[in-house]
Amino acid sequence: MRLGVLRETYPNERRVALIPALAPMYVKLGFEVLVHSGAGEGAHHTDDAYRQAGATVLSTREEVLAQADIVLTVRTAGANPNFEADLPHIRAGQIWVGFMEPLFRPQGVQQLAERGATAFAMELIPRITRAQSMDALSSMATVAGYKAVLLAAHLSPRMFPLLMSAAGTVSPARVFVIGAGVAGLQAMATAKRLGAAVSGYDVRPATRDQVESVGAKFVEIPLQVEQAEASGGYARALEEETLRRQQDLLGEHLVQHEVVITTAAVPGKRAPLLIPRRVVEAMPAGSVIIDLAAEWGGNCELTQPGETVQHAGATIVGAVNLPATAPVDASMLYSRNLYNLLAHLHKVGMLPTPAPDHEDEIARETLVAHGGRITHPRVMQSVG
After folding, report:
1. Would you name the residues annotated as active-site residues?
2. Fewer CB within 10 Å: C terminus or N terminus of the chain?
3. In the chain, what are the domain boundaries?
4. What pLDDT does 14 receive?
């Protein structure tokens, strides 16, 4: 089978779905590797590096799509607004693998299905032990959490650590992180390493130990929430009345902090609105909010995806695609996640002929389109 690697078309995307070091591993599995010229440039991988690793470099995107049986991407379908340009070149039976936003923007998966393509969505890797090496969401969330803190430190008028000098003592910046998933915990750990006074909150009480394990103070908010955790360890969407109560109680803490990083998201739904305008206006002058949920509507009322907003002395960053700002390491992690998934699919017999009713949980949960139709129940529900 021929494996094709495309140059990404999402705005400012610098990651690549395959680094040269992994090309020989695909060859050992029996794949011929085709790479679109320039695909690795953003992550500092040259065409020659791919050739030396045993790949064939093709000049145009159309050549890759015409020859590849499997197409590897970082962002495609609903995760890439420029995806429709590829549609005329997609063949029936061609297999696509990448981030696709199958639950939040399922129309892209629907388009792949209509072209007769097979699609595996990296967002739907199940949260089980044997799939951890394939969990691209967690890999990219690690990068995003780290970069969010560096961005906040750059924009904040405050220094993060406690500093003592003959001229006086500089108190540490106060950082509040909302959400104790992978991105949130990485943000807490990074802010702590930079010397900030870090607090963290999550609607799931069970995350207290994780927050405290990275050196942050767990903020407990007295909400009466039943089943705050959904399947896979994700937070569950709250009822409207509970959400309003959460906003009020969170606001009492947020106004005491100069830096806020938000990571709260619910798969397939709009991100919960946790920071209303009135709270932003009550925060200290010079405050910075980094909203990692911007792509899904944002946790802050004033967030604009991909933009930086100034309001009442505060800076609100609608952070989009932060992993692309660390393309070398992000590409390495993502490439390994992809390889581990494809090696597994190959092992269990899902390549080259996928089966929607396969007994393997990883194969079954990641397959979202096959045989001209959407195959995943949750994606079907999202399409309506």
Report:
1. 127, 132, 135, 138, 234
2. C
3. 2-135+327-383, 141-325
4. 98
